[in-house]
Design brief:
It is built from 3 helices and no strands. It is an all-alpha fold.
Length: 160
Amino acid sequence: MTINLKGRVGDFVGKFVFKMQSILNLRVQIEQNLKNNLGRATQELGRQRGILEHIREEKEAHMENITHMYQRGIAVGKLQKYYGYVKHLGTKERTQQENIKKAQDHVEKCRRELVKAMKDKKILEKLKEKEFDDYVKQQNRREQRLNDEIISFNLTCSEI
């Protein structure tokens, strides 16, 4: 005599549920936001570097102009105006270098935050993986116990 226990097997098999899934989802979202922040910070750093390059090119062009004007014998008053503007560009250049330093610091801060978020997420992912492995082992033990019960029942029934 054999018995069909298909319905009973379904009772033992449950769906794996990671209790901290909502926290893991939040950490994934935080990581994505921090990646976006890092991207924006990197773009801003590039933009600030572009501004500095433009200032340097303008300053160099005016220095060449001053040299040419001096060689042609232009009036001292005009040379002083040009030189004053070049000095102003030098000040802008230093200010822009400070802006670049701030942008670099911001990029590094964003990078550190992203690395920390990635580590936090990885910890939860490993925990989820471990819990899933434990769940699979538990399900295998339950299935083995059920198979043992079926075999025992079948042996008992065949002896009767």
